[in-house]
Amino acid sequence: NTLRLTISSFFYLGETVYLLSEWEEPELNAGKNSKATVADLVQFRKAVSTMNDKYPFSRAFGHANTRESCVRSSQEVFDRLMLSAPSDSSSSANSLPFSILSVLAMDRNGDFVDAKIKSHIRLFRPDRDGNLSKLDFVKSVDTVYKQLRLLRASIANSRQIDLAFERIANCFFYFFLVIIAVAILGINIWTVFLSFNTFFLGFSFLFGSAASNYFEGLLLIFVRRPYDIGDRIATSNPKSDTNPNGSSTWFVDKVTLFTTTVRFATTNEVATYSNGSLAILRIINANRSPKAIISVLIKFGLETPFNKITVFRTAVENFINARPREWIALAGFRATRVEADFGYVEYKVIAQHRESWQNLGPVLQSKADLSSFCLEATKKLEMKYESPPMPVNLSTLGNMDFGGIFHNEADDERKGD
Fold this sequence. Notes:
Blueprint: H1 2-19, H2 38-51, H3 67-82, E1 95-97, H4 98-101, H5 114-124, E2 131-133, H6 134-184, H7 189-195, H8 197-224, E3 232-236, E4 250-255, E5 259-264, E6 270-274, H9 275-278, E7 282-285, E8 293-301, H10 306-321, E9 327-339, E10 344-353, H11 360-380, H12 409-416
Antiparallel strand pairs: 1-2, 3-4, 3-7, 4-5, 5-6, 8-10, 9-10
Helix pairs in contact: 1-5, 3-6, 10-11
């Protein structure tokens, strides 16, 4: 009963928040302690070593060193959990009651921890009846597996960057060490520098812009850090607006001190950017962006009564609420254009997806399903808009030569005379 009350209150809270105006909590970073203790370092090393193990999710889960083995093990775990499902359960034969997974949210005293229950609900996303299908269970585990692998790749790439930066720091260290050693021996080092002054001055004009570009790239990697390995990014001119329907994206494959290697998400073409050239651009990071918000445009005729539009909105809202694993809520439904000359009113359906733009495939698929449902709903409610026939202006066709149509032999004889 406590678990059912928690699940129902979780969904009810989401509906209540939807009825309120949209607002985002500000981030407070002032109180965070950036210093890591020895215990934190030991725990981090232990976590990294666990990621490289064959059993990152414990031996009871099974092998998960590859994605195929992870999917196979998650299916076996689901089948084992189904053996614990009560026979008189109201769920279907292929659905797992969420109450079985809720055991993970208990403390040592056998009481449910609300924070753990909510985190499990956000991870597995059961339906409103508290059931979870086998495919949804595997998808949830696969999401955690992909995040784990991307984190491991990001840590490995950060280690390479740190080693490269260490080599640069060592060069400066030994350079100043040699200067100090020469000064201690009593040699005037400044006379040597003055003799090479003209040589260094010529090279400063030759490599000045390249050095400035390289330094901007270092600031991008060490200070801004706008992306990590596996992130889906898009670049654009910061002085112009981006496309509201989304941008062409690239996956980050490798990052060094000099360059960033990316892969085009549509065609898998690989390209390389210099970090200095990226420093002056707007970098959109889909992985760090909030949940995706998509919009669908629908046209209704001017003669469509408002009660039909209300019924259409209710149908769309029920469609979204029936799919809690895909959609968060219907974020908006409003008229955006009124074209009296063409006889239609344009409405925009705005919905917020569970996934961010990083996972673009499910977002586009859900948008296509929503567009298809809106089209079918307009057909059933007899609200489909048909554009009026456009007039044809024959004057734009130019002068037509009708002589070829009524051509005869008498005309040829006349031309011969």
